[in-house]
């Protein structure tokens, strides 16, 4: 009885009360999805966007029992993004049966893909946000930071915190990502790593591919070069990319041998 009454009362709460900040960029379909997600995950409030990239926006959300989530909303945008989506999803064995129709369906695949990739990272013990829920074009994950204030990106970390220890910790996460989760990030840089309590968190894995993907080695090489370039630029002694690759179990058609003999 009391439970039923309480539930009715909760439904009576005006939907607008869910949103701390009015965001006119949220379309009505996404808005309704956010309301459904709030009911499902016991979310009390969504806060203003902490980031608006080209293809996604991130909002902090607070549950009634005081947990913070990061809510990533993917947007249907340009033809370029459609091409990128196709490039990464085609060739990925997990998506070979998916018949691609509309850009909206693509964006939903994109959200599910990031969810699955985060789940693989989490299972393999890689430091990354834990996935919580995915619905349509919206992904809910663990919030990296405190009280709705996000952790800094590697790009934003103060100079004195950019150390060899941090570099090694990041390379260790990349190794776990490849050897245990069998994933290559594909867009790794100082913009897609957060640092919290001196610990790196790998984020933005929607485009990450299985190590069997035809471009996996090429992407991994570029990821490592980005990390090395960043730390070298801050005076940290880095390990040559080919040495790191030597420890990574990524032997596809193109293979490590080809890389090693040319490098
Ligand atoms: P952008 O183009 O802005 O990089 P994106 O589509 O690449 O957007 P992400 O990189 O996943 O999306 O997230 C955008 C930003 O949101 C990140 O740079 C980071 O500041 C913040 N962010 C992402 N995930 C989380 C999280 N789990 N917890 C806290 N903040 C996060
Ligand atoms: Mn990003």
From TrEMBL:
Keywords: ATP-binding, Kinase, Magnesium, Metal-binding, Nucleotide-binding, Serine/threonine-protein kinase, Transferase
Entry EC number(s): 2.7.11.1
Chain ranges of the Protein kinase domain: 44-263
Main enzyme class: transferase
Top-level taxon of origin: Archaea
CDD domains listed in its UniProt record: RIO1_like
Pfam families listed in its UniProt record: RIO1
SMART domains: RIO (SM00090)
GO molecular function, one term: ATP binding
Signal peptide per UniProt: none
Gene3D superfamilies: Phosphorylase Kinase, domain 1, Transferase(Phosphotransferase) domain 1
Catalysed transformations (reactions): L-threonyl-[protein] + ATP = O-phospho-L-threonyl-[protein] + ADP + H(+); L-seryl-[protein] + ATP = O-phospho-L-seryl-[protein] + ADP + H(+)
Cross-referenced InterPro entries: Kinase-like_dom_sf (IPR011009), Prot_kinase_dom (IPR000719), RIO-type_Ser/Thr_kinase (IPR051272), RIO_dom (IPR018934), RIO_kinase (IPR000687), RIO_kinase_CS (IPR018935)
Entry similarity comment: Belongs to the protein kinase superfamily. RIO-type Ser/Thr kinase family.
Protein name listed in UniProt: non-specific serine/threonine protein kinase
Organism: Stygiolobus azoricus
Lineage: Archaea, Thermoproteota, Thermoprotei, Sulfolobales, Sulfolobaceae
